[in-house]
Design brief:
Elements: E1 7-8, E2 16-18, H1 24-33, H2 42-51, E3 54-55, H3 59-69, H4 71-75, H5 94-99
Parallel strand pairs: 2-3
Antiparallel strand pairs: 1-2
InterPro entries: Gypsy_RT_Integrase-like, Integrase_H2C2
Pfam families: Integrase_H2C2
Organism: Lithospermum erythrorhizon (Purple gromwell)
Length: 105
């Protein structure tokens, strides 16, 4: 605690300011969707907040939960591209017959 504010020591640089509980949602919104936000994933969001110098004990879980609720992020989610039915290979030997390759002799 320094001058009445709670901080956490960081291995990478300066002290991290501990955000009060009533400011967590505003901080997540500003970093994720604010002026400089670009709808990043949960882990990236937590790391970006940490690099900005902020921290709270449930940062990673709150970031992941916030991103899962983001409507824009859900629309841009990777859609699995799996075939509807099992794929059946088609054998095409025509190129080899045109070339006239004799593999045996």
């Amino acid at each position: 605690m320094f001058q009445g504010k709670l901080y956490k020591a960081s291995k990478l640089g300066p002290l991290l300011f501990c955000i009060p509980e009533n400011k967590i949602q505003q901080t997540l919104f500003e970093v994720h969707e604010g002026d400089c936000g670009h709808h990043i994933g949960g882990k990236s969001l937590a790391l970006k907040i940490t690099r900005a110098g902020y921290f709270w004990p449930t940062l990673m879980n709150d970031s992941l939960r916030y991103v899962k609720k983001c409507d824009f992020f859900q629309k841009m989610k990777v859609v699995p591209r799996q075939p509807v039915a099992e794929m059946i290979p088609v054998l095409c030997l025509i190129p080899f017959s045109i070339w006239g390759i004799d593999l045996v002799g």
